[in-house]
Amino acid sequence: MATLTLIVSTRTAPAGLAVPVRDALKRMDASMSAFKFDTIGGQLRVTMLPQWFGAWLGGVLGGLAFVLAISGLYGVVSYAVARRTREIGIRIALGAAPRDAVWLVLRQA
């Protein structure tokens, strides 16, 4: 079964041309029937759907990877602080600035 694609350029609403175009096709060939009328924008949406879905899925997976990386970094830093809590407390008690204690932990992480 052969298919025919007809592209019509118009300055008016495309929905208003469906009936006249269908009638013109029937006058040309009675066996010809038009089943689907769509705009270029509609055709582009259908054509670009796989790319749009791939981009959306990539964005979701990228966001998930970002959240996992941040939670992993938080776990490593909190573990380092938990292991050295006593040492950090002693350093601050002996006169170290809190900024130096934070730098000590971040430098190791």
Give an account of the 3D structure:
The mean pLDDT is 86. The radius of gyration is 33 Å and the shape is rod-shaped. The chain has 109 residues and is mainly alpha-helical. The longest helix has 44 residues, at 40-83. Helix content is 69%, strand content 0%. The protein is built from four helices and no strands. The N and C termini lie far apart (67 Å). 0% of the residues are buried.
Average pLDDT metric? 86
Report the total helices: 4
CA(first)-CA(last) distance? 67 Å
| Overall outline | rod-shaped
How is this structure best summarized?
This protein is mainly α and 109 residues long. Helices cover 69% and strands 0% of the residues.
List the defining traits of the structure above.
mainly alpha; rod-shaped; 109 residues; 4 helices
Strands, helices and their partners?
Layout lengths: L17 H11 L11 H44 L1 H9 L4 H11 L1
